[in-house]
Amino acid sequence: METPIDAKDPELLMLWGNKEDGYNYRQRRHEPWRETYTLYRDTVTVNRLTQRQSVNLPLMKTVIRTLLKDVDDMPVLYFENLDNDKDKEIFLNEYWKWTASEQVNNMEVQDIVDKKQVGLFGRSFCQWQIIDGQIRMTVQDPQDILVSRYVDPTNLNSARSLVHTHIFKPLSSLVNNPDYDQEEVKKLQTFYATELGLIKQAENAKMMVEKNQKMQDMGMPDLESPILGETYVELSMHFVFRENEKVGEDEALPGQFFLYVEADDQVMLMKKPLEEVIGTTKDHFWRDHLPYDSWADDIERQDFWSDGIGDIVRTPNKILNSWVSQMVENRTLRNFGMNVYDSSIEGFSPETFEAVPWGWYGIPVPQGKNLSQVFQKVEIPDLSESLDEIEFVTNFVEKATGATSTQQGVIEDRQVTLGEIKLSLGEAKERAKGMAKFYVPVWKQRGMIFLKLIEAASEKLDMVKIYKKGRNTSDIYSREIGPKDWMTKSGYQAKVWSREEKLNQDTQVLQRLDVLRSVMPDNPKLADVYQRKLLNFAEVEPDDINEIMEFEQEKREMMANNMGMPANQPGVNPVVPGAVPRPAVNQPVTNQPVV
């Protein structure tokens, strides 16, 4: 890194040192990340020793895509109002749905990118901020984030410093930002007018070169020197936890995060407490929390930059590429039909012969020699026995990652029973779903960040228009909502569960309720509970559920009036396939139900 313009500024030197420390801590992962990414993108580097042919077996892509196929969908995130105000609870959850929608954050797709990054690099980061009146979540490249080496891998907020690098902005845009120190901006403009500044503009820093090496391998020609119409500056956001920062004359904090913005390792454009930048909450959440979250599926205590699925597949993929490259070259050379000949024979120049179909070529054979002594074919051994070794390595990778051939839709040749296939496939899927143990909790953290952003900066959020279907009609109604429509005294708590987990829980609840209905067939309250659970299981909208239940109640009252029965007599209830059958209402129960 280059020496800052103001090398005497202790805070700028501190930022410089934090960036250097975070970079050195992460640097060992750069080359494995580059190789993993290029193998996933079906790109290899040809060399004269082990990879003479541009051949890549898509093992990396096959394994990661197979595992992503069986990993659960984006978790369900729901916010419960602690004051039991259901109307406000509905408004907040509708605002969350709008925030997660395709038009705003497209979180369903970002969730896939998030999981793919964990598979490729072992760790992924999400940044949360308010932009143009909207809450924005962005999945960031791990190679853009630097973290203090003494961070607790299970808690990103324990980092003493986090640096978000490679934020490129036009130099002219810095003048229009009121949060930046304009005197420092002028220093930067003066710096770029010098010869040293021109060199800085033309060359990328070492971190940017290594980050972009992946895209260079993909064939992007002008990555190092793009032709741009204006000067671009690389900004870095530093989140630094500072101890004993005073607030007022008497009050002192145990510590809080500060946000620094520096440009090209040269000048510091801004320094503010993070709580001042985002906003204040009742519990001062943003004093000791970062607007970032991170997770890994192979987390460990010693190393924050843990391994991913790509680290398991990378070396076997390189081995297979080398072997297949040799087989391709071997077949090519065998097809050439190379020969050696006795060059001491005068008048014999076989390289001048023109190969034609059914051609005849005269070859002079000196006296005392035979034809085999004049020329011989170069024998190139067959390498087809490598196919067994390739299959062995492939099976080894499948066992190590859980991406079996059965999950990929491939039926093996050996004779197996249907039960064995189901058992093997079920175990493989359960292994793939083990990733949910790591990414479901991080979604609860994201829900908390979402709530705290609203609480701290509600005045920065725009009103949004939501659309709902009216009751007892097919008309669509709209309404504008904002934070004042859902904010309450006690606030909210976030509940999260995976879709697979929720489906299993709902299925078990319905089965238990069906057993209860067989014991208490005439209980109207139990019938209502069962029907509502069944409608929720079918993912019917809450308004539609109320309409359906009102219709059921009216139907029971009508049947009771016609038959002279009590109005609360339950009607015929739907039966879940596979559930315990319920005996008829007017028939005695002869056998006790079996659970």
Q: Alpha-carbon distance between the termini?
A: 69 Å
What global shape is seen?
flat
Mean pLDDT: 80
By DSSP (H or I, 4+ residues per run), the number of helices equals 18
Percent of residues in helical segments? Answer: 40-55%
Q: Structurally, how many domains make up the residues?
A: 3
Instruction: Output the structural class.
Output: alpha+beta
Oligomer: single chain
Q: How large, in whole angstroms, is the Cα Rg?
A: 34 Å
Spatial sequence of strands, sheet with the most strands: 4-5-6-7-8
Low-confidence stretches: 201-205, 420-425, 570-595
Residues in β-strands, percent: 15-25%
Main sheet?
5 strands, antiparallel
- How many strands? 14
Short description:
The protein is of the alpha+beta class and 595 residues long. The chain is built from 18 helices and 14 strands. Helices cover 42% and strands 15% of the residues.
Describe it:
β7 and β8 form a beta hairpin. The strands form 5 sheets. Strands 4-5-6-7-8 form a 5-stranded antiparallel beta sheet. The protein has a 3-stranded antiparallel beta sheet with strand order 3-2-9. Strands 1-14 form a two-stranded antiparallel sheet. It has 18 helices and 14 strands. It has 595 residues and is an alpha+beta fold. Helices cover 42% and strands 15% of the residues. The protein has 3 domains: 163 residues, no CATH class; 233 residues, no CATH class; 64 residues, no CATH class. The radius of gyration is 34 Å and the shape is flat.
